[in-house]
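Working notes for the structural subgroup meeting. M.R. asked for a predicted model of this chain before we commit to crystallization trials. I am recording the input and output together here so anyone reviewing the notebook later can reproduce the run.

Input as submitted:
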Amino acid sequence: MQKQGLELKQTQRLSPLQIQTIKLIELPVQELEQRIRAELEENPVLDDGPAQDSDSSDDESPKDVSLDEIKDDDYVPAYRTRVSNWGKDPRPEYNTFSVKESFTQSLVDQLGFRNLDSRKRQIGEFIIGSLDSDGYLRRDIASVVDDLAFRAGIEATEEEVEELLGIIQEFEPAGVGARDLRECLLLQLRAESQTPDVICAERILTEQFNEFSNKHFNKIMSRLGIDEKQLKSAMSKIIRLNPAPGGQVDDSYSDQAQQIVPDFVLSEKDGELSFTMPRFSIPEIRVNRSYAELLENARGSGEKAQKEAASFVRSKLDSAKWFVEALKQRQNTLQKTMQAILDYQHEYFLDGDESNLKPMVLKDIAEKTGFDISTISRVVNSKYIETHFGIFPLKYFFSEGMENKEGEEVSTRELKKALQECVDAEDKKKPLTDEQLVEEMGKRGYKVARRTIAKYRGQLGIPLARWRKEL
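Returned structure, recorded in token form:
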């Protein structure tokens, strides 16, 4: 039984090539280029320049050798890879595009600008990691203190956590780190110039939050001693605040941005779709002639030092083979996955009309390609495609689906678009409840449950009906 268990464990072990391939698949094109450069710089054996002409008149200069010329299969020199038509500088002819950095990373970067010692920085980073996707800290301070002790090994007091949370609440986007909606809105108001309208809005949220939530406008005016004009001005300040500051960090353009390069470029001609991967080509291994000769001379040699040197070179060339083969497998995987997405969403990619975007999940593409769902997930993550109607992360094209009244499957993105249109068209003095939105969606041909309306409304940042009511 022990032997059988051991054999099972061995069959599940990943080979060095598989591990290398998995790591490379996850990388977007810019990071991949950096990874290839790192391989070039770390290898002492291969030449990174073009292959030398064998007819060169300079007989004293060593000639590099193609990997294919190294015939002995059981040895491998350390290598340097060379990409055809690619020098040390990034190619200028391909555009880069800006996308906003991740929400968490943005906060961590802002924390780095504060004059904090290592311990406080660790506490701050832990708090940032505890925020939900909307930017709220949904846990009480005592729980955070306990988590710091058990999960991070940091003994902290509630006062220290409160202090660091206060610092984080000063970060952009305004409202981040709040523990409830009122605190979130107040943090945003306090970050603004303290005009009379802003001060009045702060009073409403501080002193009359329940009345504000329930739209009891007369009570607010009576208790605060303000007239309708002042109330309207203050309410206009509150309504435009963001109730989910974490959700505003997305793929829109931003000055606070990192550069990305599309991994794929889409082309459309006469209804035919194709794509290229212009920033990537398989590198060619060129072995320095001196090391090739060392390997040749080591064959049949009895000298220990020469054999040890050759053994080192062999191990390096094995590593080179794995790396290049992993690059080939990465390219094949990305090409097959992208082609499957294009085939699946053909109508959408013709003109970018969102109504043509079909429901699609990772499993759908996994079945078309024969890859595991985990592999598709790695391909989709952090990859972008440039189209004639914009630049999109591959994740954008994946969404769950539901059926309309005709039994046809429609994407959640289409449903959300219809829901937004219903809300935009409503009478703001009598905004639609979730039950009424179900009816309106039904009139448009979508059968959606009330809980689904509530879910999509939350994802779209649409407040409850009573919050949408206007004077």
